[in-house]
Design goal:
The chain is of the alpha/beta class and about 260 residues long. It is built from eleven helices and seven strands.
Length: about 260
Amino acid sequence: MNVLQRNNVTVAGQPDGRPMILAHGFGCDQQMWRYVAPAFEDDHRIVLFDHVGAGGSDLSAYDPERYGTLAGYAQDVAEICRELELRDAIFVGHSVSAMIGVIAASEAPEAIAKLVLVGPSPRYIDDEGYRGGFSAADIEELLESLDSNFLGWSSAMAPVIMGNPDRPQLGAELTESFCRTDPEIAARFARVTFSSDNRADLARVRVPTLVLQCSDDVIAPDEVGEYVHRAIPGSTLVHLAATGHCPNLSAPEETVEAIRAFA
């Protein structure tokens, strides 16, 4: 199966421009970058895609074993890079795709030259000396709720994840995005996402990295962004004025400005 079809890859911008890969988070698809991507089309080759199971990806390509860890998703990124012959690319990963990008940068070092991690978390569950924001019981309850009533879970959780209660249309959009996702695949992806521990991968990052941290982010609180910044050698941490977990939707201009200053 052609990787470009499998992952619904779309390419825009300048064919000879520096590549910029934009990767969406859980329950989303490439449309979540529609306010950010156009800002870079004049001087970059923009690569957008959907993780298998999301958006316009080929659902028949979903393999529970391959996608049983984030490494399977990172392998997809590496395959996209090779198929498009990308070099010196900037990988922008939102939420779980931040850690997918960290893994992919090791998988395809010839292709990925910079990382932008938007709301990253290497581990969501608290551990000794580490605050991820959730207890193991919290995560298990979240996953059980998702398994038993995906649409209800989406309606309740998406506005909380989005934040910005003064702009309910943002939460409604994220809810609709969640509800478009195949429930079975979404449940498996959620378990992989919220059960992963990628802290050891951070020290292996060898490319310039920007960490974008929002305030009032219930999914990736400030302490997590600080941890990622400390763990990645030479990384840059920028605290955005944006609130919630999805600045690509809630504060695209500030997000673009921060990425442009780094890229």
